[in-house]
Amino acid sequence: MYAASNQVDNLIVTVDYNGQQIDGALDDVLSLGNLRAKFEAFGWLVIEIQNGNDLSSVISGLSSAKEHTGKGKPICVLMHTVMGNGVDFMMHTHAWHGKAPNDDQLALALAQNPETLGDY
Amino acid sequence: MKEYIDTGKKDTRSGFGAGLAELGKSNPDVVALCADLTGSLKMDEFKANHPERFFQVGIAEANMIGLAAGLTIGGKIPFTGTFANFSTGRVYDQIRQSVAYSHKNVKICASHAGLTLGEDGATHQILEDIGLMKMLPGMTVINPCDYNQTKAATIAIADHHGPVYLRFGRPSVPNFTPADQPFIIGKAITLTEGTDVTIIATGHLVWEALEAAKALEAQGVSAEVINMHTIKPLDSDSLLKSVAKTGCVVTAEEHNYLGGLGESVARVLSQNSPVPQEFVATEDTFGESGTPAQLMEKYGLNAAAIVAKAQKVISRK
Predict the structure, then answer these.
(1) CATH number at residue A88
(2) pLDDT tens-digit map of B151-178
(3) Chain A positions in Cβ-Cβ contact with residue B63 (cut-off 8 Å)
(4) Domain that holds residue A27
(5) Domain range for residue B115?
(6) N or C, which end of chain B has less CB nearby within 10 Å?
(7) pLDDT digits (tens, 9 = 90+) for B48-73
(8) Beta pairing, strands B172-173 & B140-142
(9) Which of A2, A13, A42 to mutate to test the interface with B (most CBs of B within 10 A)?
């Protein structure tokens, strides 16, 4: 409300919209309804990234958001994502919202994502 | 006994407004935020003189605290203004998470504290704000006693780095401390010296404590009155020095006896010098609608109540 009312148009908010929360799927716990319409009703410009787990989609969505700055509206990037993306037993469930993997689960998860194993 | 003269009743919130206006001229880093109570908080002068440093956030106190926390990152010194109830209970989470935890340099300035808000009643009166704020690690808690001291405190907290809760009130009350006084955070002021009982008061109760001391003097009782304007950090040295002479204490505050000045004093006494203590405070109750004077009498927060508690505590020595 404050941002739109005061035309804070150099502000970009990113929503990691994964549809899960600690007690279950968001729609099973308490639906947010139409989140895009809600931001728009508050005077924000909304840009959606349909596949928020795809880096090129994220980069183009954020670039688009940046191009829309300075036009009188704060910007919301609604980034549709999958929590636990790339780890088959973590995806499409709320179960991992509030817990960390144990050593065995960690090894299993990292094995599914060998590109993340590197010399840091 | 040293005499204190009421130079004319004034509201402490106007002292805040005057202090803020002065800071507007003297400190370019000071910014002010208000949640739709600019007139009540007496922030109009700052707003008129420095519109680019004033943020009207609307009735959105949580957002106000978040904005204030963010403004500190760029080196600003934000002063937020709303009623004490909405400055603390309504936004405790934002103060805890966004201000206190990272020791942000936010000055939470709260008017209409306590019962003397008056007619608006219990929904708007807060009697637990000192407790809420003093429990937060790193938070400084100040409750000045009159217009002049509130003005001085407002100016002083701008030079203190860290979160501060500055509590003041709505009604016009006696203005008896010096104009342009230095304000030293955490340094209590001994107003009268005495030998029979120590009266430690804060906020609006300081004047009542002086009135009580006069009444006690007429009964042959010598009371030492201490203005404990800073509740946290508490001036333990002044407190202990005084009770070493008097051997008993009455604390007086416009707050619940749970979580207020009295409990802070009791902790210091129990650890260092256990002596009898009586509390002038509300007794775990909400307020109600009424004139300030009616409410202070009904809830036992005036000079007569202090006298009665002083007599009681002396009898327990």
Answers:
(1) 3.40.50.970
(2) 999 999 999 999 999 999 999 999 999 9
(3) 1-2
(4) 2-116
(5) 10-173
(6) C
(7) 999 999 999 999 999 999 999 999 99
(8) unpaired
(9) A2
